[in-house]
Amino acid sequence: MKLHKGLLSVLLASFLVVSGCGSNGQGAQNTSGGQGGEGQTLVVVNWKDYGSDDPEMIKAFEESCGCKVVHEYMASEEELLTRLKTGGVGKLDVILPNASILPVAIQEGLLEPIDVNKLENYQYVNKTFKNIPENEKDGQVYAIPWVWGSTSIAYNPNMIKDEIDSINVLWDEKYKGQIAFRDDFNDAVMIAAIAANQDPNNPSDLEAVKQKLLEQKPLNRTYWKTGDEFSKLFANNQISIGVAWSGNTASMKQAGQPIKYVIPKEGAIGWVDNWAIVKDSPHKDLAMKFIDFMIGKDFQTNWVNKGGPAPVNTQVVDDLDPAFVQEMGLDEEAISKLFFISYHNEEEKKTWNELWHEVKAQ
User: Fold this and answer.
1) Residues forming beta bridges with residue 271, ordered by sequence position
2) I need a surface site. Which of 20, 75, 143, 242 has the fewest CB within 10 A?
3) What is the C-alpha separation between 234 and 255, in angstroms, rounded?
4) Are 124 and 313 in contact (CB under 8 A)?
5) Is residue 18 helix, strand or coil?
6) Are 193 and 355 within 8 A, CB to CB?
């Protein structure tokens, strides 16, 4: 990267002057008058240790706005939806939903519509992420893209000398016993659907998808569940190639692992995490300022330099090493090949999950 960790202290110092309630996050002074959050307590629901609860970041925002930020944590998106339905409305302020629950939350009136014209940094959000259908309804926006990533293929170039450019490498007999596949029904079905030339969000022939997964199974060294599990398998040379997360791969690369990440020509899985404001939030204006801060250049630069997910802010990507951007699939060409996870109802998820359990049981 062009930006290094040695610059983080400088960036953090700049937060207190140019970010959050005191300005638009780009260095221009706020002309609205006042801090806008003085004495308020903003309640944010996110995954634990997922960027927004970084102590230095929170301190910068709190000092800029004269407020306090309290984090509550979720164990799953479904749990978050349950919290909204059972007392979260009118009490919580900002939450981090994804496509798996957004349509339900919007339909049931659990979220506030967001006027994107009041977000100074929304203009810098990559247009691809602004067009995700689950984020809006009837012309109103309910979720603001924050970070994104992909699930694709990573391999060890010291062990594999061939140039990898196809998802079918996961079905290549040459690598039998060296492959690690993700143990997740959604990823499994989508990857097999891509390989079978079907729409991964709406596969037309689930039986063909199942057969693809059964064909891949004997070539597999193991199925992995967590990023840490994949990292250890890779570091110990137990695998040389497999399904991997872009963010986890970037962290492994920063740690010195010989790893290469590719978006195959057939495509790969994409995901986006979004901020939303809870219906009847007690602090709507402060919630807007928090989201603006989260998608601003300063915060996103800091987090990507700490090994965080890919930023949605195009200014940040422009400042990264072009070689890193291309290799990690952050460029526009790679993004255009991603199939971003869409909403599936309970019946669809049940069918996919049963299919995956049948594959593993055989």
Assistant:
1) 149
2) 75
3) 13
4) yes
5) helix
6) no
**Whole-angstrom Cα distance, residue 202 to residue 189?**
10
What are the Cα distances from residue 305, in Å, to 233, 272, 286, 310, 352? 25, 19, 26, 10, 36
Q: Could you give the CA distance from residue 19 to residue 290 in angstroms, rounded to a whole number?
A: 10
Show the DSSP H helices in the chain as ranges: 8-18, 55-65, 77-83, 102-107, 127-130, 185-195, 206-216, 227-235, 246-254, 284-294, 297-305, 314-318, 322-327, 332-335, 346-361
Q: What whole-number distance in Å separates Cα of residue 47 and Cα of residue 76?
A: 8
Q: Angle, to 10 degrees, between the axis of helix 346-361 and the axis of helix 206-216?
A: 30
Q: What's the Cα-to-Cα distance from 101 to each of 11, 58, 156, 257, 339, rounded to whole Å?
A: 34, 27, 36, 35, 18
State which amino acid sits at residue 340: F
What pTM, to 2 d.p., does this model score? 0.82
Contact (CB, 8 A) for 69 and 42: yes
Rounded to an integer, what distance in angstroms lies between the CA atom of residue 141 and that of residue 153?
33
Local structure of 182: helix, strand or coil: strand
Q: How far apart are CA 63 and CA 285, in angstroms?
A: 16
Give pLDDT, residue 38. 79
For tokens 């009041």, the residue is 118
Identify the residue with better confidence: 329 or 26: 329
Residue 93 in contact with residue 287, Cβ under 8 Å? yes
Instruction: Determine the residue type at 357.
Output: H
More confident site: 269 or 346:
269
Place of tokens 């240790």: 49
- Residue 310, pLDDT > 70, answer yes
Q: What angle do helix axes 297-305 and 8-18 make, rounded to 10 degrees?
A: 160
Rounded Cα distance, 242 and 270, in Å? 16
Mean pLDDT, residues 124-135: 94
